[in-house]
Specification:
Blueprint lengths: L18 H17 L3 E2 L5 E3 H7 L5 H6 L2 E3 L5 E4 L4 H10 L9 E10 L11 E10 L4 H18 L4 E7 L3 H16 L7 H9 L10 H7 L11 H16 L5 E2 L11 E9 L7 E7 L3 H4 L7 E7 H11 L11 E5 L2 H16 L4 E3 L6 H10 L4 E5 L1 H6 L1 E6 L5 E5 L4 H16 L1 H18 L1
Parallel strand pairs: 1-5, 7-8, 12-13, 12-14
Antiparallel strand pairs: 2-4, 3-4, 5-6, 6-11, 7-9, 9-10, 10-11, 14-15, 15-16
Helix pairs in contact: 1-5, 5-9
The structure holds adenosine-5'-triphosphate and magnesium ion (MG).
């Protein structure tokens, strides 16, 4: 191993040649969220530790084992956010956004930090895209949020994704259920893991979310919350199912879906892929009607979800989904000698101002290596500038794909000349562009009628 400092375990570098994958998903999630009425919120990377303890819940794995907490020189302790909901709700309360009318919708794309056992799709720094909707109790809101996720997964092109839904009731129905769960697990206590022993005392529902195989097996036979729902929760859950059917969204009722955070009430849901093994939950969310009041705000129903972007990209790669390729180099100005390099610089500035992606030699390569480099970066056109071109005031644009050369004057007409060459190339090679141009032609025709 090389002798320089390595990145911390569980973190990732996105190198320049790969960042277009991130740009693809970031663009799709943001545009879709905006189409559903969400606007972006940006919150701090760290918060007072108490915020997460109170919201995520002190019996959760996240709070008990996974938080990166730092003491500052003052009295407060801070924690790097393990998720985005707590900070978002804090910000909504702190900025008085609840006074701006209902419902409020916010989305975010942010890094999260959890001290986890690192595996594929399970990192210590990872990224979530998430949405929170505040002030909507009706199951129409739950369906709308789910429809947003579905729409994103469709747009990125994911296949073989299952939507699991469940209701985990409200504090009213959960009392009886906790008793039943406790009795069930009490009988099998010896077979449960260490952590689950403690969960049994403090919050038996957490056992259902344990990742240990033996615990999972036992939990499979545990009583299910659906049998304990109060009438209100039951009809809310039925309402959600009805709405999903109306929107044509397939789902599976999975009574074992409980989610890893304490603040959920009623609806919980997960979008699961079988392509990532135990890390198959690409997106998880649900309703958290009690969270805002527990953070000192007014009793306000709310819901949301978070999508793991590393898991999304991994699944997309695995399934061969398409990513938006970045725009390639339009022109490379090859220059021989310092006068020619100055001309290349001048032309580069001119063409960049016009919006083209342009490069020229800045490391002093010879003619051949410059051509090679232009080829390597996929330049669509190359122009060679040397003494004779400067003298005659004429030079050639070479289409690198066809080899075709077109001579142009190196004066003010050059932009216009190149525009024509470029347009012809697009018509020849770019199907989308041709369709785009055709669509105008059809419009004209209709107008002409
Ligand atoms: P899991 O059950 O896989 O541990 P979770 O219940 O802890 O997930 P949430 O807290 O609901 O997950 O976070 C929402 C989403 O964020 C998850 O569905 C997943 O896609 C992603 N995610 C969570 N933890 C990690 C992690 N350590 N590394 C990468 N992605 C993660
Ligand atoms: Mg987890």
């Amino acid at each position: 191993m090389a002798n320089y400092i390595q990145r911390p375990k569980g973190t990732q570098d996105v190198v320049p040649s790969q960042s277009y994958k991130w740009h693809t998903v970031e663009r799709i999630v943001a545009e879709t969220a905006e189409q559903f009425g969400f606007r972006e919120i940006r919150i701090p990377t760290f918060e007072e530790t108490g915020l997460f303890v109170r919201s995520v819940g002190d019996t959760t794995d996240v709070v008990q084992k996974e938080m990166y907490t730092v003491s500052s020189t003052g009295d407060s302790t801070f924690t790097l956010r393990p998720e985005g909901t707590a900070g978002t709700i804090r910000a909504i309360l702190e900025n008085g956004i609840l006074n701006e009318g209902f419902p409020q919708r916010a989305y975010y794309i942010l890094s999260c930090f959890r001290h986890e056992n690192v595996q594929k799709g399970r990192l210590r720094e990872f990224h979530q895209f998430g949405c929170e909707m505040v002030g909507a109790a009706d199951p129409a809101a739950d369906a709308d949020i789910i429809a947003l996720v579905k729409s994103i997964l469709d747009r990125v092109g994911l296949k073989n994704i299952r939507l699991d839904i469940n209701s985990i009731g409200c504090p009213k129905c959960r009392g009886e259920y906790h008793k039943a769960l406790k009795a069930f697990f009490e009988d099998r206590k010896d077979e449960l893991c260490e952590t689950c022993h403690e969960r049994l005392e403090r919050n038996p529902m957490r056992i259902l979310d344990c990742k240990v195989e033996d615990c999972k097996k036992i939990a499979a036979d545990a009583p299910v919350i659906l049998d304990y729902l109060c009438d209100d929760c039951k009809s809310h859950f039925e309402g959600l199912q009805e709405n999903l059917r109306v929107m044509g969204i397939d789902f599976v009722i999975n009574p074992h879906t409980v989610r890893g955070l304490d603040y959920y009430t009623r609806t919980v849901f997960e979008f699961v892929t079988t392509d990532l093994g135990a890390q198959g939950v690409v997106c998880g969310g649900g309703r958290y009607d009690g969270l805002i009041s527990s953070l000192g705000g007014p009793q306000t129903p709310a819901l949301g979800f978070a999508m793991g972007l590393e898991r999304l990209i991994l699944t997309m790669e695995k399934q061969g989904c398409e990513f938006m390729e970045p725009k390639g180099c339009d022109i490379y100005f090859v220059s021989m000698g310092s006068n020619a390099q100055k001309k290349a610089m001048e032309l580069t500035a001119k063409f960049r101002e016009e919006g083209y992606y342009v490069q020229y030699d800045i490391v002093g390569r010879g003619l051949k290596p410059q051509m090679k480099y232009a080829d390597k970066i996929g330049a669509k056109f190359v122009m060679v500038l040397g003494d004779s071109e400067l003298e005659t005031g004429k030079a050639k644009f070479k289409n690198m794909q066809t080899g075709e050369q077109t001579e142009v004057s190196l004066d003010d007409s050059i932009l216009e000349s190149f525009g024509e060459i470029y347009y012809t190339m697009l018509l020849d090679t770019d199907e989308d562009f041709r369709d785009f141009v055709d669509s105008f032609a059809e419009d004209d025709f209709e107008l002409g009628n």
